[in-house]
Each structure stands twice: as structure tokens, then as C-alpha cells.
Amino acid sequence: MLIWLPQLVIGVVDLAAAFLFLYGLHRMSSPVSAPSGIFVAGIGMAVAVAASFLYAFDVSTAARANLPVNLGLAVIALAIGGGAAWWGGRKVAMTAMPQMVAIYNGMGGGAAGAIAAVELFGNKATGAPALVMTLLGALIGAVSLSGSLIAWAKLDGVINKPLRVKGQQVFNGLVLLLTLGVGVCIVVAHTRDATLIWAMPTWIYAFFACALALGILMTLPIGGADMPVVISIFNAFTGLAVGIEGYVLQNPALMIAGMVVGAAGMLLTLLMAKAMNRSVSNVIFTNFGTVATRKQGKIKGSLKPTQPGDAGIAMRYASTVIIVPGYGLAVSQGQGKLYEFVKLLQAGGVSVKFAVHPVAGRMPGQMDVLLAEAGVPYDMIFQLEDINDQFATTDIALVIGANDVVNPAARTDKSSAIYGMPILNADHAKRVFVVKRGDGKGYAGIVNELFYAENCNMVYGDAQAVLIKMIEAVRGLGLPDVA
Amino acid sequence: MDFQSSISGFAAIYIFMLAAFAGWVIIGRVPAILHTPLMSGSNFVHGIVVVGGVYALLNASTLQAQVIGFVAVLLGAGNAAGGYAVTDRMLVMFKTSEPAAKHGSHAKRGTVKSIHVKKH
Predict the structure, then answer these.
(1) Measured between alpha carbons, how far is A394 from A214 in angstroms, rounded to an integer?
(2) Which one-letter DSSP state was computed for residue A335?
(3) What angle do CA A378, A381, A361 make, to 5 degrees?
(4) CA nearest B49 in A: which residue?
(5) Taking 80 as the threshold, does the pLDDT of residue B101 lie above it?
(6) What is d(CA A72, CA A77) in angstroms, rounded to the nearest whole number?
């Protein structure tokens, strides 16, 4: 076998894969072309993985004896890892999507870390620059792995409360310094050929232990409402780690794919942080919710409960309705019933739109996916900046399971923890119905003055149960379809 | 003949810079409604790390390298397959109300356009 042929094939295939990834992501800029986009990227992945087996023609002499075993192991690992994740991804409920993405992301970070470990233990990285890059990729990958696992545990409810201890940030800072210190020792020991206290493998183990601990410590204090930002950050981290390990392995496809994702993750992180009016460092280093316990000004007005049926009928007789769905809707699995109710209103000639806040849900855009799953056409779903002016000319705003994202305190109350956060102007509608389980506060722990407003009525109950009653009430009217 | 790519020093930095810029520009065009599929889609893309895992495993000469390489391929394959599965599942859910537009219901035309136009 000619030695250069596999190299040529791998090179061409990786080049094609890098192009297909970029083109696939590019096609994701519209809901119409997006499904073909992921398919295109999938082809790139499939051919790249298939071509990677051609490395078998070009293995190092030391590994040649192991080649049959290694090939078998690779096939088994691909089948098990790929099969299990595919099965999990097909089965998972849409509401559990953030956890699933966190897991897959952690796996990617772990894979990048493992590749770095192979390079380090095998003494393959030569020279300080390559070694530093390997260690950097290992650090970011390991942080992403352990951090994503904690994020998964939080999203899945395994860990319920953010764990906060005094002096935590100082301690985390020290752990980071320790990790970097161990890294420096590894580089020094390698380049000077010196033995520092421990043998090299011990240092490498210590490095990974520190990096994994750092990921855990970083993520533990972060609250549930900040998860969209955290998932974005770890997505970016894994991308960076993959890109860096791509450099170490001299594989441009990995470099490009990793760095594209790294940049994309950073952009999404910034967008999310902006939607919450907080800086990224604020999310990581301060404890949201704890600052919000300060006193609030007195709120005028009172809570005015109303029956679900009455609210439903009022909407049937309105001409325009905007619905603001929040995570409470997803918790009660009421999306399907909501769309049923909406279709009923539309049949009666009511114009209905959905207004989705950027941080509705547990990851960016999750509410859009949940509505899409329920069958809501995406041209009925509007983002904050596109619909906010329309509330003023709308008859009824129906807020379901959302709270902080419609709290007018974000506009007016400078002392409020959410001051400056862009909100949906549901309070500008002529009438507002708020479906809520109880009088509880939102994530930010702030009383919502919208609920006390003159034009607002509260409908208490589980979102799905309330919607069923609304549907019954509207059907009970026996009005003919207009549209 | 040698087709082994050798990327060092500034060439690597140029690749990183251009890729980061491309990612930033491409992702900046994606509407907020698609942010979840986008995130899982980009999550899928960094699953390419599995290729590096295969390389590391095939070149493993010690038991330790074999074990870690195996883990790398296992995790990388999970990342790629899982990322694809969930992204594909989500994207096929996004539908327009175009078929229903025949019945003369409202808020159909023009609103579709707003989704495409606003990110430019």
C-alpha cells in the first residue's frame, strides 16, 4: 500500500467535512433550511469518522502490534457510545433537552481531555508550545466535562439548590492557580528533563484531578435561572478544547470545527447574558437571588383572582390575544392544550400570537422548541424585539407560567435585582390574565407588580388544568367558527 | 509524496482566527427561535473530536493509552451521535402555518418574512 494515499484521502475528507460543517451551520439560519443543514453537517461527520480509520495505515511503529486490537476497540467504542447516545437522544422528552445537551457537551469535553491525556502520558507532545497547548486543551475539556455533569444534575433536579459557601470564589481562584501551577511543573519537568518530587504520571493525574474539581466548584454555586448562560459557556469551552486538541493532533478539521463552535458558544453566551441584563462574569461570580431580598416599595392595588372559564371566554370575544409562555407551562406539560385552546380562538376569528422571551426555559430558545413540538407554527411565534410594541394595541395578554420576564419593575425600579433586563410589555395590553400555580415569586425572588395592576386578573391553578377548563368554557359557548 | 498537514505558529493562529470569525458571523444570523437547535447543532459539530479519539486509540501502544483512547472514542461518539439525534428531532418540529393559510385565517403572510429578514 502506498503510504501517501491514506493521507491524501484523510486530508481531502477532513477538508470536505470542515466545509460541510460550516455550510450546515449556515443553513441553520432559517427554520425552512435548518433540517437540511444538520443533515449536511451529519454527512460531513460520517465521512470524517469513516476516513479516520485510514489512520490505521500510518500508525507509529510502537503501536503496530496492537493495531488489530485497537481497531476492534475503536469500532466497539463507536458502536456503544454512538448507539447509547442516539437511543437517548431519540427517547428524551423535549422538556429534558437542556440536560441532554449538557450531557453530550460534557462527553465532547471529556473526549478532548482524554485525547490530551493520551498525548501527555505517551510523552508525545514535544517542545514547550505543544505541551502548553495540550495542557490548555486538557484543562478546558476537563472543566467542561465535570461542569456539564453538574449542570446536568442541576437541570435534572438531582441537585436542587445552588451550593454557596463564604469565600467560595477565593477558594475556586486558588484551585485554578493550583491547576495552572501543576501545569507549569509538567512543562518544566518535560522541557528540562528534570524530575520534580513526583514522577511525571503523578503530575498528570494531579493536573486532571484539579481541572475536574475546578469544573465542579465553578458550577455548584450557579442557580437554576442562570442555566442558559452556563450551558452556552460550556458549549463554547468544549469547542475551544476540541480546537486546541486539533492543533495538538495537527488536524485542521478539528481546529476549524472546534473554533467555530467556540465562537458560536461565546456569541450565544453574550446574547443570553444580555437578555438577562447581566454580564457573563456576573453570572459566574455572583449569586443571583441573594441580592434580591432587599425591601421593595409598597405595591398599589390587589390581586384579583378570576375563574379559568371566565378568562377563556373573555379571550374568545377579544380580537387580538398575545400569549406569553414561561417555564411553568412546560413544567405542567400544557403546551399541547395551549395550542388546542389557541386553535379554538383562531377558529373564532381571534388573532393569536406567541411572545417568547429569550431566556424562557432552561436553555436559549427552549420555549420555541416546546411550542414547535406542540405543533405551533413558527410564524406565530415572535421574539421580544419584534412584538413588544404590539402589546399596547392588544386586547388581552395571557401570561402562562412566566413571571420575571413580564415584571415591570425591570423598567422602573432601580433598586430591583432585575432592573434593566429587557421584558415583555404584557402590562401594556388592555387586559392581562396571569395563569400561575400560587402567589410565589419568580426566580429573582421579587414580587411582580403586574399582578396587582388594575388591568390584571390572576387565574390560579396548574397551567394544563387551567387550559382544559378554558377550552371547556369556550366550547360550551357553542359559537360557530368564523374563519 | 507527503500529504501530512503540518500547522505551526502563525498558520495555526490564522486558522483559529478565521474559523472563530466564520462561527461568529454564521451564528449571528440565526434567529433566536432556533437558538436551542443551534446550540445542540454546534454541540454536534464539536463531536468531530471523535476523529481525534480514533487517531489516539489507533496509535495507542500501552494499555493505559488504549483505555484512555477507548474512553475518548466512546465519549466523542456519544457527543456526535447524540447531538445529531436531538438536533434533527427538534428541527423537523418547526413548521409554518402555510397550509392553513388557505382557510383565510390571519397573521400568516408577512409574519413569515419577519423571521427571515430581521437578522441581516
Answers:
(1) 49
(2) H
(3) 105
(4) A242
(5) no
(6) 9
Give dist(CA A249, CA A294) in Å, integer: 53
Query: Rounded to a whole number, what is the distance in Å from the CA of A271 to chain B's nearest CA?
Result: 9
CB of A348 less than 8 A from some CB of B: no
Question: In this complex, which of A32, A56, A252 lies closest to B7 when CB atoms are compared?
Answer: A252
Nearest to A327 by CA among A372, A367, A274: A367
Verify whether the Cβ–Cβ distance A21 to B78 is below 8 Å. Answer: no
Run of H or E including A374: none
Q: Which of A78, A111, A121 sits opposite B49 (nearest CB)?
A: A111
* Residue type present at position A73: L
Catalytic option among A14, A226, A368, A404 = A404
Kindly state whether B67 is in contact with chain A, defined as any CB-CB distance less than 8 angstroms.
Answer: no
- Please report, for residues A104, A283, A325, B19, B46, the alpha-carbon distance to residue A144 in angstroms, rounded to integers and kept in the order given: 11, 16, 31, 21, 13
CB interface of B with A, residues 17-46, below 8 Å = 19-24, 26-46
A325 touches chain B (CB under 8 A): no
**Residue A398, beta-bridge partner list:** A323, A433
C-beta neighbour count of A217 within 10 angstroms: 21
Residue A299 near residue A449, CB atoms below 8 Å: yes
Counting residues of chain A whose pLDDT is more than 70, the rounded percentage is 94
Report which residue type is found at A356.
V
* DSSP symbol at A305: B
Cβ atoms of A444 and A404 within 8 Å: the answer is yes
Cα–Cα dist A10/B4, whole Å: 9
Mean pLDDT of the residues in chain B: 81
Cα distance between residue B80 and residue B48, in whole Å: 7
Global pTM?
A: 0.86
Q: How far is Cα A22 from Cα A40, in angstroms, rounded to an integer?
A: 9
- Residue A152 pairs with which residues in a beta bridge? none
Residue A56: which of B38, B58, B94 has the nearest Cβ? Answer: B58
- Measured from the Cβ of residue B116, the count of other Cβ atoms closer than 10 Å reads 13
Q: Is residue A462 flagged as an active site residue?
A: no
Q: State pLDDT tens for residues B9-60.
A: 788 999 999 999 999 999 888 888 898 999 999 999 999 999 999 999 999 9
> What interface predicted TM-score (ipTM) does this complex get?
0.86
CB contact under 8 A, B36 and A366: yes
CA-nearest of A331, A338, A333, A332 to A312 is A338
Q: How far is B98 from chain A (nearest CA, A)?
A: 9
Task: Name the nearest CA neighbour of B51 among A10, A352, A460.
Answer: A10
Interface test with B, best of A103, A104, A393 (most B CBs within 10 A): A104
Nearest to A113 by CA among A80, A141, A71: A141
The packing angle between helices B9-28 and A252-275, to 10°, is 40
Residues 6+ apart with CB under 8 A from A230: A147, A151, A219, A222, A283
CA angle B48, A368, A356 (to 5 degrees): 130
- Rounded distance, CA A31 to CA A27, Å? 9
Cell 493521507 locates to A7
Highest average pLDDT, of A135-139, A364-368, A409-413, comes from: A135-139
Contacts of A305 (CB under 8 A, 6+ apart): A457, A458, A459, A460
